[in-house]
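Q: How would the structure tokens look for this protein?
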Amino acid sequence: MSLSTGTRRTWRVEEVRALGMTCDLTTAAHVLGIGRTLAFELVRTDAFPVRILRLGRAVRVPVADLLALLLGESQGPSPESD
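A: Here is the predicted structure in token form.
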């Protein structure tokens, strides 16, 4: 039995925490409920909803930032607000 293409997985907080310190962009996209293509477009246009880490060609997403977004926690003032 296969899942339909419209079925999306719901991530539990414990599962997101279990990802470690960072996760790849595709996993972050799944956690946020967006597609991989949209995630890469948001990164390209500097509009991804949480901080990203560019390590060469790799893009990593801090899991703590994902959790803060999902749980509605404030991440403090942005560095650009000076």
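The longest helix spans residues 36-44.

The helical segments are 13-17, 25-32, 36-44, 63-71.

Upvote if useful.
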